[in-house]
Each structure stands twice: as structure tokens, then as C-alpha cells.
Amino acid sequence: MQIPITGKISWTGVNDRRKTLFENIWPLPHGVTYNAYIIDDEKTALIDTVDTTAAADFLGRIDAQLQGRPLQYLVINHMEPDHSGMIEALVKRYPDLRIVGNKRTFKILESYFGVTQNLLEVTDGSRLDLGRHQLQFLLTPWVHWPETMMTYDATEQLLFSGDAFGSFGAFSGGLFDDEVLVERYESETRRYFSNIVGQYAGMVQKALAKLKGVPIRTICPAHGLVWRSNPSRIVDQYDRWSRYEPQPGVVVAFASMYGNAEQMADYIARRIAEHGVRDIQVFDVSATHLSFLLSEIWKYRGVLLGSCTYNNLLHPLMEQLCAKLTHITPKNKVAGAFGTFSWNGGAVKHLRQTFEALNWPLVAEPVEIHGRPSPEKLSACDALAEACAKAIM
Ligand code: FEO
């Protein structure tokens, strides 16, 4: 499908509803798009390509759009294979194709495809004249890989932003923000941000600073919706998330083998609710994929983690969550820890170490219960719940 965007620019990407795991890690319950854009100007250009796994009619659509004219430029905003997958095929089909990228792009390009010819190297601020459309390249490293850049069309005040401002989720009819209920896309957008780009939040802030003062009417990301009516909405969201601005709620995530840590989680969540917190989400890490846990934790100010002790350590799935949190390092949180043990403690000690590594202050002393959590034992959680509620209200 070709969808006109504005001027001589069309969307020529794909909806991928077959892939179940993005990067073979992150679930795709609603699919994903790989957005490529063609500019059919005096000189022809393609902005990014698509994943080979969903490229069935990609080349045919480019041919149909160009009607016998050759594709002259391929702009590579990002080399991750979900966007670079069709480069080899394009180079074969259009032997005179010039590939536009920066020094880092070309290192990865050679390592992937052995392509070293017909390169047009750009630096920050370089321009390319296509006729009506005037492109400018903005280097935005680490949003999401080191070579990442954005391409700005000064003629239409349109930004091809790469992974930035992207989202999980295939589009269902509506491609533009004014054609859909944008609220429906928010959780998938935040999940994409926290899973893929959030680790580089500081670099997202640098990219946003670079875009300050650049007039932008339309944002064309490499995944998800095209923002033509209210691009400031997605920019503001990315700004808030990359500044770690939390919402006043609590995530309680637990790992439990036989239900004891789960009882603690439910007890604590109930007490927090009694103290007036309305936005509380409780998750069993064994039933909720890491991807969604990271997204919810990114969202909220309060994070309470609980685990049974498993061979003197954390439950393996809680260990996985803690490890990933220390990689992506969300900030501006308050934390609490709870756990259970049967013969020897340990889980809570490891949770405390995780929070120390993350620099998340504890709202209260952790609670660790030996054996079944009787009502008397559970009352030891009251102070933790009260302190958590106070800290976020
Ligand atoms: Fe959508 Fe980092 O690739």
C-alpha cells in the first residue's frame, strides 16, 4: 500500500502482524509497522527500508510508484535490520543508487552487507536537494544506535525521525494521528519507548534539544503513527518519558512460587489503596512479560518489588527484571522491598542491592516474612504501605 503524506512524499512501509517478538524479545500483541517513505521528486529518494520478514511487495510498490524511473537515493536513518533489511535488494535492483548516511552508518553497512560503493556521506546539518524537497540531516546518536540520524524536509517542515517518536502496534486503517483514537496507542508507544529507546533517555533529550526551534508540521517515525495534526503530543510524551517524569501511582510486582509473596503483594496494595492511592497496578512477574513490567515501572513513581527466596537468591524472573532495570536505569522513583523465605532469607537483600544500584530511595525498611504470611506477620507490611502512599501522594 502507498499512502500519500504531503508534497511528493508517500508512506511505503508495511504492517507486520506475523512477528510475535520484536528483536526476538519484546511481544507484539498488536503487531508493528516498519515505516519507509518515498519521495518522488525531480530526484527520487527512499527514507529507510523494511524488515525482510515482511517485505513481500516492498520492491514492487517502489517500482510502481517510480513508473520506470530509477531510485536515486536511499537515506539510512538507522541500520537496525528492521529498517535496513532491504538494502541489499535495493542495491541490486538499482545499481546506481546512492546510499546516504554518516560515517558510523557506513561502518555498519559494510559489516552487514559489504556495501562500500556509491556512498554519500553526510555530517550534522548536511543538505541534499531533491528538486522541490530540500533534505537536511541531523545526527542523533543513540536514539537508538550510535549511527542514528534524522532527516528533515525543510520544504514540508516534515521530520523523518527514525525510531524516535515510534511505537509498537500495526495500524488499523488509520495511519495519521487524526485518523485514530490516539489514546489507544499510548501504552504501546510507552512500551516501545521504555523497551527500546529508554536506556538512552539522555540522548533522547539531546536529540530533542537539537530539534528545538526547528519548525515541524509532520513527524514520520520509523514505527507507528504519522503525526500530522498534533506532532507536539508525541514530542511532549517523549520529553516527559526521557526526563523520567513519573505519574503518581504504584507498581507492585511480585515473584511467588506458592503464593506467600503474592499474599504480601495483595496485602500491601490493599493498604496503599486504603491510604488513598487510586492508581495501583499489581503484577505477577511469572504471568506478565518483562516488556510490560518495564513500561509500567517507567510510568509510575512508586515501585514495590517482592520475591520469594529461591536458593538463597531472588526468584529467577524477579532477578531478570532487576537486571534489566539496572540496564535501563529509570530514574525518579521511590522503592520498597518485600519477600518471603522458608529456611533462609536472601531475596530482600538482593532487592535492596538492586535499589541501591538504581539509586532509588527506600520508602521504608524492607519486610521479609518467614513461612506463611499470617495476619500477624502481614501487619509488618503496614509501615511500608503507609510510607509508600505518603511518598507518592
Ligand atoms: Fe526500529 Fe532500532 O530499530
Task: Provide the list of bound ligands, each named once.
Answer: MU-OXO-diiron
Please give the CATH class of the largest domain. Answer: Alpha Beta
How many strand units? 22
Low-confidence stretches: none
Rg on CA atoms, Å:
24 Å
| CATH fold title of the largest domain | Metallo-beta-lactamase, Chain A
Strand-residue proportion: 15-25%
Distance between the termini: 48 Å
Described by strand count, sense and barrel closure, the largest sheet is: 7 strands, mixed
Assembly type: single chain
Quick synopsis:
The protein is an alpha/beta fold and 393 residues long.
Textual characterization of the structure:
The protein is α/β, with parallel strands linked by helices and 393 residues long. It folds into 2 domains: 3-242, 4-Layer Sandwich (Metallo-beta-lactamase, Chain A); 250-392, Flavodoxin domain (Rossmann fold, 3-Layer(aba) Sandwich). It is 34% helix and 25% strand. The protein contains 13 helices and 22 strands. A 7-stranded mixed sheet has the order 1-2-7-8-9-10-11. It is elongated and about 80 Å long. The mean pLDDT is 97. The structure holds MU-OXO-diiron. Residues 78, 80, 82-83, 144, 163, 222-223 line the site of MU-OXO-diiron.
